[in-house]
Amino acid sequence: MTATVSPRCEDVAWFRDGASLATTARGASAALARRLGLGAHRAAEVALAVTEAATNVQRHSVDGGLLLRVVRSGAEAGVEFLTVDSGPGMPDVRAALVDGASSAGSLGIGLGTVARLADHFDLHSVPGRGTVLSARFWPRAGDTAPGTALPGAGAADGVTRPISGETVCGDAWSVRTADGPEGARPPVVVMLCDGLGHGPLAARASRAAVEAFQACADLSPEGVLTAVDRALRGTRGGAVAVARLEPAAGRVLYCGVGNVSGFLTDADGRRALLSAPGIVGAQMRTLRTFEQPLPAGGALVMHSDGLTERWDPAALPGLLRHTPLVMAAQLLREAAVRRDDASVVVVKGAW
Protein backbone atom coordinates (compact mmCIF):
# COMPACT_ATOMS: atom_id res chain seq x y z
CA MET A 1 0.00 0.00 0.00
CA THR A 2 1.22 3.53 -0.76
CA ALA A 3 0.39 6.91 0.71
CA THR A 4 1.34 10.51 0.19
CA VAL A 5 4.02 12.04 2.42
CA SER A 6 2.47 15.50 2.43
CA PRO A 7 -0.93 17.08 1.76
CA ARG A 8 -1.86 17.23 -1.91
CA CYS A 9 -1.14 20.69 -3.27
CA GLU A 10 -2.45 22.55 -6.29
CA ASP A 11 -0.89 25.81 -7.43
CA VAL A 12 -3.83 28.07 -8.29
CA ALA A 13 -2.35 31.37 -9.43
CA TRP A 14 0.71 33.60 -9.26
CA PHE A 15 0.21 37.32 -8.67
CA ARG A 16 3.08 39.53 -9.84
CA ASP A 17 4.31 42.50 -7.83
CA GLY A 18 2.57 45.73 -8.77
CA ALA A 19 0.23 48.43 -7.53
CA SER A 20 -2.75 46.06 -7.41
CA LEU A 21 -1.00 43.06 -5.82
CA ALA A 22 -2.49 43.36 -2.32
CA THR A 23 -6.01 44.13 -3.54
CA THR A 24 -6.07 41.40 -6.18
CA ALA A 25 -4.53 38.73 -3.93
CA ARG A 26 -6.84 39.62 -1.04
CA GLY A 27 -9.97 39.20 -3.17
CA ALA A 28 -8.76 35.97 -4.75
CA SER A 29 -7.74 34.42 -1.42
CA ALA A 30 -11.03 35.31 0.29
CA ALA A 31 -13.04 33.88 -2.61
CA LEU A 32 -10.95 30.71 -2.64
CA ALA A 33 -11.30 30.24 1.13
CA ARG A 34 -15.07 30.60 0.94
CA ARG A 35 -15.29 28.23 -2.02
CA LEU A 36 -13.34 25.61 -0.07
CA GLY A 37 -15.68 25.91 2.91
CA LEU A 38 -13.38 27.59 5.44
CA GLY A 39 -16.22 29.69 6.87
CA ALA A 40 -16.70 33.46 6.80
CA HIS A 41 -14.48 34.25 9.81
CA ARG A 42 -11.63 32.01 8.67
CA ALA A 43 -11.87 33.39 5.12
CA ALA A 44 -11.54 36.91 6.55
CA GLU A 45 -8.42 35.83 8.48
CA VAL A 46 -6.89 34.41 5.30
CA ALA A 47 -7.62 37.64 3.42
CA LEU A 48 -6.13 39.73 6.23
CA ALA A 49 -2.92 37.69 6.31
CA VAL A 50 -2.57 37.75 2.52
CA THR A 51 -3.03 41.52 2.46
CA GLU A 52 -0.33 42.10 5.09
CA ALA A 53 2.15 39.80 3.36
CA ALA A 54 1.41 41.19 -0.11
CA THR A 55 1.80 44.76 1.12
CA ASN A 56 5.24 43.89 2.48
CA VAL A 57 6.18 42.55 -0.96
CA GLN A 58 4.88 45.71 -2.65
CA ARG A 59 6.86 48.01 -0.39
CA HIS A 60 10.15 46.15 -0.20
CA SER A 61 10.66 43.85 -3.18
CA VAL A 62 12.56 44.41 -6.39
CA ASP A 63 10.95 41.45 -8.16
CA GLY A 64 8.29 39.78 -6.04
CA GLY A 65 5.11 37.80 -6.25
CA LEU A 66 2.51 35.82 -4.34
CA LEU A 67 1.40 32.26 -5.04
CA LEU A 68 -2.04 31.08 -3.96
CA ARG A 69 -2.48 27.31 -3.49
CA VAL A 70 -5.07 24.75 -2.45
CA VAL A 71 -3.93 22.05 0.00
CA ARG A 72 -5.96 18.89 0.56
CA SER A 73 -5.85 16.18 3.23
CA GLY A 74 -8.51 13.52 2.91
CA ALA A 75 -11.85 15.28 2.57
CA GLU A 76 -10.56 18.58 3.96
CA ALA A 77 -9.21 21.49 1.94
CA GLY A 78 -7.25 24.54 3.00
CA VAL A 79 -5.59 27.63 1.57
CA GLU A 80 -1.86 28.26 1.45
CA PHE A 81 -0.01 31.28 0.18
CA LEU A 82 3.63 31.90 -0.54
CA THR A 83 5.40 35.22 -1.05
CA VAL A 84 8.73 35.44 -2.84
CA ASP A 85 10.77 38.60 -3.24
CA SER A 86 14.26 39.71 -4.19
CA GLY A 87 14.21 42.72 -1.91
CA PRO A 88 16.68 43.76 0.79
CA GLY A 89 15.83 40.86 3.10
CA MET A 90 15.33 41.00 6.86
CA PRO A 91 18.41 41.47 9.04
CA ASP A 92 16.46 40.31 12.12
CA VAL A 93 13.62 37.87 11.40
CA ARG A 94 12.73 37.48 15.09
CA ALA A 95 12.21 41.22 15.44
CA ALA A 96 10.03 41.25 12.32
CA LEU A 97 7.77 38.63 13.92
CA VAL A 98 7.20 40.59 17.14
CA ASP A 99 3.59 41.75 17.50
CA GLY A 100 3.15 45.27 16.20
CA ALA A 101 6.21 45.16 13.95
CA SER A 102 4.88 46.03 10.49
CA SER A 103 5.82 47.97 7.42
CA ALA A 104 4.67 51.54 7.01
CA GLY A 105 1.67 51.51 4.72
CA SER A 106 0.61 47.95 5.61
CA LEU A 107 -2.43 47.06 7.71
CA GLY A 108 -0.28 47.26 10.83
CA ILE A 109 -1.08 43.77 12.12
CA GLY A 110 2.51 42.61 11.57
CA LEU A 111 3.93 39.30 10.41
CA GLY A 112 3.73 37.96 13.97
CA THR A 113 -0.06 38.10 13.75
CA VAL A 114 0.05 36.45 10.32
CA ALA A 115 2.07 33.64 11.90
CA ARG A 116 -0.50 33.22 14.69
CA LEU A 117 -3.47 33.21 12.33
CA ALA A 118 -1.89 30.49 10.18
CA ASP A 119 -1.92 26.81 11.11
CA HIS A 120 1.57 26.54 9.69
CA PHE A 121 3.99 29.40 9.03
CA ASP A 122 7.58 29.57 7.85
CA LEU A 123 9.87 32.40 6.79
CA HIS A 124 13.44 32.49 5.50
CA SER A 125 15.23 35.71 4.68
CA VAL A 126 18.75 36.49 3.50
CA PRO A 127 19.89 40.12 3.83
CA GLY A 128 20.76 41.53 0.44
CA ARG A 129 19.08 38.68 -1.46
CA GLY A 130 15.42 38.29 -0.52
CA THR A 131 12.68 36.69 1.53
CA VAL A 132 10.27 33.76 1.24
CA LEU A 133 7.21 33.37 3.47
CA SER A 134 4.63 30.58 3.56
CA ALA A 135 1.38 30.36 5.52
CA ARG A 136 -1.19 27.55 5.54
CA PHE A 137 -4.79 27.88 6.73
CA TRP A 138 -7.06 24.93 7.47
CA PRO A 139 -10.73 25.24 8.47
CA ARG A 140 -11.31 26.05 12.13
CA ALA A 141 -13.07 23.71 14.57
CA GLY A 142 -16.72 23.55 13.61
CA ASP A 143 -15.93 23.78 9.91
CA THR A 144 -14.31 20.32 9.83
CA ALA A 145 -15.55 16.83 10.60
CA PRO A 146 -15.13 15.86 14.30
CA GLY A 147 -11.76 14.29 15.06
CA THR A 148 -10.15 15.46 11.81
CA ALA A 149 -6.34 15.69 12.11
CA LEU A 150 -4.96 18.29 9.71
CA PRO A 151 -1.25 18.05 8.84
CA GLY A 152 1.48 20.65 8.84
CA ALA A 153 4.48 20.60 6.55
CA GLY A 154 5.27 17.25 4.97
CA ALA A 155 8.59 15.69 4.03
CA ALA A 156 8.24 16.75 0.40
CA ASP A 157 6.93 19.88 -1.26
CA GLY A 158 7.52 21.94 -4.33
CA VAL A 159 6.49 24.93 -6.37
CA THR A 160 5.83 25.62 -10.05
CA ARG A 161 5.71 28.93 -11.92
CA PRO A 162 4.70 29.47 -15.55
CA ILE A 163 6.73 31.42 -18.07
CA SER A 164 5.87 35.12 -18.19
CA GLY A 165 2.70 35.64 -20.22
CA GLU A 166 1.21 32.19 -19.51
CA THR A 167 -1.29 31.19 -16.83
CA VAL A 168 -0.53 27.44 -16.85
CA CYS A 169 2.81 25.82 -16.13
CA GLY A 170 4.23 23.03 -18.28
CA ASP A 171 6.12 21.57 -15.31
CA ALA A 172 4.66 19.27 -12.66
CA TRP A 173 5.86 17.14 -9.76
CA SER A 174 4.38 14.41 -7.60
CA VAL A 175 5.41 12.29 -4.61
CA ARG A 176 4.41 8.93 -3.12
CA THR A 177 5.60 6.53 -0.47
CA ALA A 178 6.32 2.89 -1.25
CA ASP A 179 6.38 -0.32 0.75
CA GLY A 180 9.54 -0.80 2.78
CA PRO A 181 10.91 -2.93 5.62
CA GLU A 182 8.47 -3.37 8.49
CA GLY A 183 9.05 -0.87 11.28
CA ALA A 184 11.29 1.37 9.15
CA ARG A 185 10.54 4.67 7.50
CA PRO A 186 9.00 3.97 4.09
CA PRO A 187 10.78 4.82 0.85
CA VAL A 188 9.78 8.14 -0.69
CA VAL A 189 9.48 8.35 -4.46
CA VAL A 190 9.36 11.73 -6.20
CA MET A 191 8.95 12.57 -9.88
CA LEU A 192 9.40 15.85 -11.73
CA CYS A 193 8.33 16.37 -15.34
CA ASP A 194 9.17 19.34 -17.57
CA GLY A 195 6.78 19.15 -20.53
CA LEU A 196 8.49 20.28 -23.72
CA GLY A 197 7.87 23.93 -24.53
CA HIS A 198 5.32 25.80 -22.46
CA GLY A 199 1.61 26.56 -22.32
CA PRO A 200 -1.37 24.16 -22.39
CA LEU A 201 0.29 21.45 -24.51
CA ALA A 202 3.30 21.26 -22.20
CA ALA A 203 0.93 21.19 -19.21
CA ARG A 204 -0.98 18.32 -20.82
CA ALA A 205 2.22 16.28 -21.05
CA SER A 206 3.21 16.94 -17.45
CA ARG A 207 -0.30 16.07 -16.20
CA ALA A 208 -0.11 12.78 -18.08
CA ALA A 209 3.22 12.09 -16.39
CA VAL A 210 1.75 12.72 -12.93
CA GLU A 211 -1.25 10.48 -13.64
CA ALA A 212 1.01 7.67 -14.85
CA PHE A 213 3.23 8.04 -11.79
CA GLN A 214 0.30 7.93 -9.38
CA ALA A 215 -1.05 4.78 -11.08
CA CYS A 216 2.32 3.02 -11.39
CA ALA A 217 2.72 -0.31 -9.56
CA ASP A 218 6.50 -0.52 -10.02
CA LEU A 219 7.96 2.32 -7.96
CA SER A 220 11.57 1.75 -8.94
CA PRO A 221 12.92 4.78 -10.83
CA GLU A 222 13.19 2.79 -14.06
CA GLY A 223 9.72 1.32 -13.57
CA VAL A 224 8.21 4.78 -13.16
CA LEU A 225 10.05 6.20 -16.17
CA THR A 226 8.92 3.28 -18.33
CA ALA A 227 5.29 3.90 -17.34
CA VAL A 228 5.61 7.64 -17.89
CA ASP A 229 7.22 7.08 -21.30
CA ARG A 230 4.17 5.07 -22.41
CA ALA A 231 1.80 7.74 -21.07
CA LEU A 232 3.60 10.59 -22.86
CA ARG A 233 3.44 9.05 -26.33
CA GLY A 234 1.07 11.19 -28.35
CA THR A 235 1.99 14.28 -26.30
CA ARG A 236 4.91 16.65 -26.72
CA GLY A 237 6.90 14.50 -24.32
CA GLY A 238 9.13 15.87 -21.64
CA ALA A 239 12.22 15.73 -19.48
CA VAL A 240 11.56 13.52 -16.45
CA ALA A 241 13.54 12.48 -13.40
CA VAL A 242 12.60 10.06 -10.62
CA ALA A 243 14.27 9.68 -7.23
CA ARG A 244 13.58 6.89 -4.74
CA LEU A 245 14.85 7.65 -1.24
CA GLU A 246 15.28 4.55 0.93
CA PRO A 247 15.89 5.47 4.59
CA ALA A 248 16.41 1.86 5.72
CA ALA A 249 19.21 1.40 3.17
CA GLY A 250 20.54 4.94 3.60
CA ARG A 251 20.53 5.54 -0.15
CA VAL A 252 18.83 7.37 -2.99
CA LEU A 253 18.25 5.78 -6.40
CA TYR A 254 18.01 8.33 -9.22
CA CYS A 255 17.15 8.00 -12.88
CA GLY A 256 16.54 10.91 -15.23
CA VAL A 257 16.08 11.63 -18.92
CA GLY A 258 16.48 15.16 -20.26
CA ASN A 259 17.18 18.50 -18.60
CA VAL A 260 15.92 17.92 -15.08
CA SER A 261 18.58 18.60 -12.46
CA GLY A 262 18.95 16.66 -9.24
CA PHE A 263 21.15 17.43 -6.23
CA LEU A 264 21.80 16.11 -2.75
CA THR A 265 22.62 19.04 -0.50
CA ASP A 266 23.80 19.31 3.09
CA ALA A 267 25.88 21.60 5.28
CA ASP A 268 28.98 20.79 3.23
CA GLY A 269 27.53 21.75 -0.16
CA ARG A 270 25.80 19.77 -2.90
CA ARG A 271 26.36 16.73 -5.12
CA ALA A 272 24.85 16.47 -8.59
CA LEU A 273 22.77 13.47 -9.66
CA LEU A 274 23.16 12.40 -13.28
CA SER A 275 20.52 12.29 -16.03
CA ALA A 276 20.80 10.94 -19.56
CA PRO A 277 19.94 12.89 -22.73
CA GLY A 278 16.63 12.18 -24.45
CA ILE A 279 12.90 12.92 -24.45
CA VAL A 280 10.48 10.79 -22.44
CA GLY A 281 7.60 9.83 -24.72
CA ALA A 282 9.66 10.17 -27.90
CA GLN A 283 13.37 9.45 -27.68
CA MET A 284 14.02 7.64 -24.41
CA ARG A 285 17.25 5.69 -24.47
CA THR A 286 18.34 2.78 -22.30
CA LEU A 287 17.75 3.78 -18.70
CA ARG A 288 20.42 3.80 -16.03
CA THR A 289 19.84 4.25 -12.31
CA PHE A 290 22.52 5.86 -10.13
CA GLU A 291 22.90 5.29 -6.39
CA GLN A 292 24.15 7.78 -3.80
CA PRO A 293 24.18 7.75 0.03
CA LEU A 294 21.57 9.92 1.74
CA PRO A 295 23.26 12.92 3.40
CA ALA A 296 22.69 13.20 7.15
CA GLY A 297 20.60 16.28 7.86
CA GLY A 298 20.44 17.06 4.16
CA ALA A 299 17.85 17.30 1.41
CA LEU A 300 17.11 16.19 -2.13
CA VAL A 301 16.52 19.01 -4.62
CA MET A 302 15.14 18.47 -8.12
CA HIS A 303 14.36 21.26 -10.57
CA SER A 304 13.60 21.90 -14.22
CA ASP A 305 15.83 23.90 -16.55
CA GLY A 306 13.67 26.91 -15.77
CA LEU A 307 16.28 27.34 -13.03
CA THR A 308 19.97 27.72 -13.66
CA GLU A 309 22.31 25.39 -11.79
CA ARG A 310 24.35 28.28 -10.42
CA TRP A 311 22.59 28.42 -7.03
CA ASP A 312 24.92 27.97 -4.08
CA PRO A 313 23.68 26.58 -0.72
CA ALA A 314 26.38 28.60 1.06
CA ALA A 315 24.72 31.82 -0.15
CA LEU A 316 21.49 30.86 1.66
CA PRO A 317 22.52 30.31 5.30
CA GLY A 318 20.05 28.42 7.45
CA LEU A 319 17.97 27.21 4.50
CA LEU A 320 18.18 23.53 5.51
CA ARG A 321 16.37 24.35 8.77
CA HIS A 322 13.23 25.34 6.87
CA THR A 323 10.32 23.47 5.31
CA PRO A 324 10.61 21.86 1.88
CA LEU A 325 8.20 24.46 0.47
CA VAL A 326 10.23 27.43 1.68
CA MET A 327 13.44 25.77 0.52
CA ALA A 328 11.95 25.20 -2.94
CA ALA A 329 10.65 28.76 -3.16
CA GLN A 330 13.96 30.26 -2.05
CA LEU A 331 15.76 28.32 -4.78
CA LEU A 332 13.12 29.49 -7.27
CA ARG A 333 13.78 33.09 -6.21
CA GLU A 334 17.53 32.57 -6.39
CA ALA A 335 17.88 30.80 -9.73
CA ALA A 336 14.68 30.86 -11.83
CA VAL A 337 14.42 32.65 -15.16
CA ARG A 338 11.28 34.37 -16.46
CA ARG A 339 11.68 33.07 -20.02
CA ASP A 340 10.76 29.48 -19.15
CA ASP A 341 8.44 27.45 -16.94
CA ALA A 342 10.12 26.70 -13.62
CA SER A 343 9.64 24.03 -10.98
CA VAL A 344 11.46 22.89 -7.84
CA VAL A 345 10.69 20.01 -5.48
CA VAL A 346 12.51 19.34 -2.20
CA VAL A 347 12.49 16.28 0.07
CA LYS A 348 13.94 16.51 3.58
CA GLY A 349 13.29 14.93 6.95
CA ALA A 350 12.23 11.65 5.32
CA TRP A 351 15.32 9.77 6.56
From TrEMBL:
Superkingdom, taxonomy of origin: Bacteria
Domain PPM-type phosphatase residue range list: 150-349
Pfam families, sorted: HATPase_c_2, SpoIIE
Keyword Cell membrane: no
Keywords: ATP-binding, Nucleotide-binding
Keyword Ubl conjugation attached: no
MF annotations from Gene Ontology: ATP binding
Leader sequence residues: none
Name of the featured protein: ATP-binding protein/SpoIIE family protein phosphatase
Upper classification of the organism: Bacteria, Bacillati, Actinomycetota, Actinomycetes, Kitasatosporales
